[in-house]
């Protein structure tokens, strides 16, 4: 998010100075690291939690909104490639089919109706639904070997046009270009406090290696600190986050070590979340392309730790509890018993238990072909609400800013990095409204569909699709 915002502002206002502080010793080592997230270019092609069933009908509103935002990402990245800010697109984005997986009669029926609802939508070209066992086996051999098709109905639905994104590589390329353009990037520096002084923010920063502190003053601050963003916004006294709380959810993957299996599978296959599981824990068998190497993951498996970052502190959760957010915590604790039960069950699992879950997707899975790796840390936002609920557990990505637009931050999880350009455009609109008229030509250059809904304009969608497919080398 921070790297994306920096890239936008450098084009919009090249005379403005920028400075980036990163507490770790290199870029993209937390949530943007390719091994810490699924790398899915989230566009609702296969993610079933974006198409819930309501009153017997498939609700497409969230799927359409997320897909629209990912189209903004594709356009902005294409523009950056054209301008030489981003180098070879294959270093950060690659074509990988996106498929949704259904098991059992009820899920297959839902998946068929979901396909029928999406098939006529311009944003979802090339969708298909397959419930033929032979066709399933041909497309997904790793998921078919050892499967008893007679015992349980299975199906998949999706499209070949999905993408895998290495957000770590994308971030590094943005920051490399930023430094070349004069942005100062200080690694190993942690922001400890934010206070308003006159018309500027006083940013107190600590060198994590020497312990030295320094102060920088800025007219505008963006807090893109992942799980630490909420705490920093609270320290800044941003009233808009009063009563907000955070609930950390960790995770793990099973990573395939068998090259033959890795080569046989070529898709991101998403299933249905278990009852009580948060949306970020939707199981998926996931083809990855990282640094030119193909990989295969399964997960994520839910876990729990009081850390708000993978490289955080075990005191993070306890230090985040304040008098104003205690009701939010208690309200969610009372309402989300299913989530608590799910996390307790997940934490208790060992490798053999995780292998059992994997066998729902890979029936012939052997323990020697898989290893456990730790995924990234996520902090689910708890939003204060009126009595009797007091708190609501929020799933998704949320932008928070002060009323004067001088500070903003990003909270939440998926779709996250996939929609970074759209999220940062929203930030520009909220925090720099007085500049938008002057910026409008450049914004339309960055994002040709800016201000328009592609779902309502098939010709424009097709033009943007062809442009981004070619520029990002996704049609090769």
Automatic annotation (TrEMBL):
Q: Does the keyword Cell cycle apply?
A: no
Q: Which cofactor does it need?
A: FAD
The EC number(s) given in the record are: 1.1.5.4
**InterPro entries cross-referenced by the UniProt entry:** FAD/NAD-bd_sf, MQO
Q: In which pathway does it act?
A: Carbohydrate metabolism; tricarboxylic acid cycle; oxaloacetate from (S)-malate (quinone route): step 1/1
> What is catalysed by this protein?
(S)-malate + a quinone = a quinol + oxaloacetate
| Molecular function in Gene Ontology | L-malate dehydrogenase (quinone) activity
Q: SUPFAM superfamilies given for it?
A: FAD/NAD(P)-binding domain
Keywords from the named record? FAD, Flavoprotein, Oxidoreductase, Tricarboxylic acid cycle
Q: Where are the transmembrane segments?
A: none
Q: Name one Pfam family in it.
A: Mqo
PANTHER family for the chain: L-2-HYDROXYGLUTARATE DEHYDROGENASE, MITOCHONDRIAL
Which HAMAP family did the record assign? MQO
Family stated for the protein in its record: Belongs to the MQO family.
The protein's name is: Probable malate:quinone oxidoreductase
- Organism encoding this protein: Corynebacterium suedekumii
